[in-house]
TrEMBL record:
InterPro entries with a match to the protein in the record: Ald_DH/histidinol_DH, Ald_DH_C, Ald_DH_CS_CYS, Ald_DH_N, Aldehyde_DH_dom, Aldehyde_DH_Superfamily, Succ_semiAld_DH
GO MF, any single term: succinate-semialdehyde dehydrogenase (NAD+) activity
Pfam families: Aldedh
Protein name per its UniProtKB record: Succinate semialdehyde dehydrogenase
NCBIfam families: SSADH
Family according to the record: Belongs to the aldehyde dehydrogenase family.
Domain Aldehyde dehydrogenase: 12-479
Keywords: Oxidoreductase
Single biological process term from Gene Ontology: gamma-aminobutyric acid catabolic process
């Protein structure tokens, strides 16, 4: 079993209070690792180290930073099996998904490293022959990253790779449920040659006080966060006091619209992939399925058949495609939404039940929910308004394009939306009409390292991925030179 300290100024160290906490496997309830439990004092140590490292790192050439990121990419990819297993043990997702996430996480490191070499400035024609206008990009400074448990590797690399590419040192606070993947990743970055103080890691069970300490410190100039809208709002308020740059990747409530002219089998496969990936615990999971009425029952039947075939269990076991939910609270929320829907008239056409023990999994502390499909769903049901974060697909029928786009937009979130149609003109109209940061047209899996990932409305601010992600860690300086 792994035991990790905090990583500060290039060294693994005890938390100031000397405390540790246990990490459990959500599929079994077993303890799979131990991590240091850091607090505000440790944040102070990490910020000081990062602050000291800032000029050193910022003054490395782009080429040197890119080389280190390239080596980090190669190390992550060559440790894909090990990282994937750690991830499944602490997070529960099926191994195949964990391996795919490690590659996705590595892709951000590779792409950001390449972008490091393309942080270009600009010259602008002046209004006077005696002046020169230069636009120069500089790293914003020390960056903090607070990440969730649903993607233990990629939510970290999506923040720290562009930060390092831009020349910013980082302090990472991973989710308390999934610190082991973060610790191993940090070891690999260190092995790749990231200098001391440039990456710091504070694992902790005290997220509110650790977060507040990071945000109160004026030396921290940027906060990158992925998590709930509720916590994102707290962080944005705290960031205001020292006017930090903020990037917030928050909740979502993705509509998945299937028009009658869609290729139904393909669309059904993609709904299943989008909805049930990570047991429904992603912010871009399809959360509302709108199906044109003329094909409604036929499509619902396809979904139910496919959902019933998904094998639920411990993600380490072969053929399992639905792992456990992260904890009891998550299962309570999913169960509550399903009960609310049933009480208000929904019909269960697949799944519908919660379990503690599945297959060979020995635990009673685990929380599973069957892949579930609901019909006769109405807008008054909680599931149509609030994020589910579980394997439940509620289906509602619609009759016109105008009606469904209106319904899709009628939500406080605006992260991802998907639709299936073969009509080109409609594809353009609907893609432009949806108030979402990410739109998949006949594509249920649009996320990729080079594209701008982020939401409209209460789904957040800023973008992660590609050149957009690097831009978030840069300041724009305008230099005016009078040559007279
Ligand atoms: P989730 O529902 O996915 O757990 P959270 O928003 O609660 O989402 O958590 C995302 C990350 O934010 C985790 O690393 C968690 O520890 C951290 N976090 C939770 N509450 C706070 C807070 N008040 N201040 C700073 N970080 C927090």
């Amino acid at each position: 079993m792994k035991r990790y300290g905090l990583f500060i100024n290039g060294e693994w160290t005890h938390a100031l209070q000397g405390e540790f906490y246990e990490v459990t496997n959500p599929a079994t309830g077993e303890i799979v690792g131990v991590c240091a439990d850091g607090d505000e004092g440790d944040v102070e140590r990490a910020v000081s180290a990062a602050h000291q490292a800032f000029p050193v790192w910022a003054n490395r050439t782009a080429r040197e930073r890119a080389d280190i990121l390239r080596r980090s990419y190669e190390l992550i990819v060559s440790h894909k099996d090990e990282l994937g297993e750690i991830m499944t043990l602490e997070q529960g997702k099926p191994l195949a998904e964990a391996y795919a996430e490690v590659q996705y996480a590595a892709d951000f490191v590779e792409w950001s490293g390449e972008e490091a070499k393309r942080i270009y400035g600009e010259t602008i024609p002046a209004s006077s022959p005696d002046k020169r206008i230069w636009v120069h990009k500089q790293p914003v400074g020390v960056a903090a990253a607070i990440t969730p448990w649903n993607f233990p590797a990629s939510m970290i690399t999506r923040k720290i790779a562009p930060a390092l590419a831009a020349g910013c040192p980082v302090i990472i606070k991973p989710a308390e449920q999934t610190p082991l993947t973060a610790c191993r990743l940090v070891e690999l970055f260190q092995e790749a040659g990231v200098p001391k103080g440039v990456i710091n890691l504070i694992t902790s069970t005290r997220a509110p006080s650790v977060g507040s300490a990071m945000l109160a410190d004026e030396r921290v100039r940027k906060i990158g966060f992925t998590g709930s809208t509720e916590v994102g709002k707290i962080l944005m308020k705290q960031a205001a006091d020292t006017m930090k740059k903020v990037s917030l990747e928050l909740g979502g409530h993705a509509p998945f619209i299937v028009f009658a002219d869609a290729e139904l089998d393909r669309a059904a496969d993609e709904v299943i992939a989008s909805k049930f990936r990570n047991a429904g615990q992603t912010c871009v999971c399809a959360n509302r399925i709108y199906v044109e009425e003329s094909i409604g029952n036929a499509f619902a039947e396809r979904l139910a058949q496919r959902a019933k075939k998904l094998k639920m269990g411990n993600g380490l076991e072969k053929d399992v495609s639905i792992g456990p939910l992260i904890d009891g609270n998550a299962a309570d929320k999913v169960e509550g939404q399903v009960k609310d829907a049933i009480n208000k008239g929904a019909e269960v056409i697949a799944g519908g039940h919660r379990h503690t023990k599945v297959g060979k999994n020995p635990g009673e502390k685990a929380h599973f929910f069957e892949p579930t499909v609901l019909l006769q769903v109405t807008d008054e049901m909680e599931i149509m308004q609030e994020e589910t974060f579980g394997p439940v697909a509620p289906i509602q029928f619609f009759n016109s394009e105008e009606e469904v786009v209106k319904k899709a937009n009628n939500n406080r979130y605006g992260l991802a939306a998907y639709f299936y149609t073969q009509d080109l003109a409609r594809a353009i109209r609907v893609a432009e009409g949806l108030e979402f940061g990410i739109v998949g047209v006949n594509d249920g899996a649009p996320s990729t390292a080079q594209a701008p990932f982020g939401g409209f409305k209460e789904s957040g601010l800023g973008r992660e991925g590609g050149k957009y992600g690097v831009e978030e860690f840069l300041e724009t300086k305008y230099i005016s030179v009078n040559i007279k």
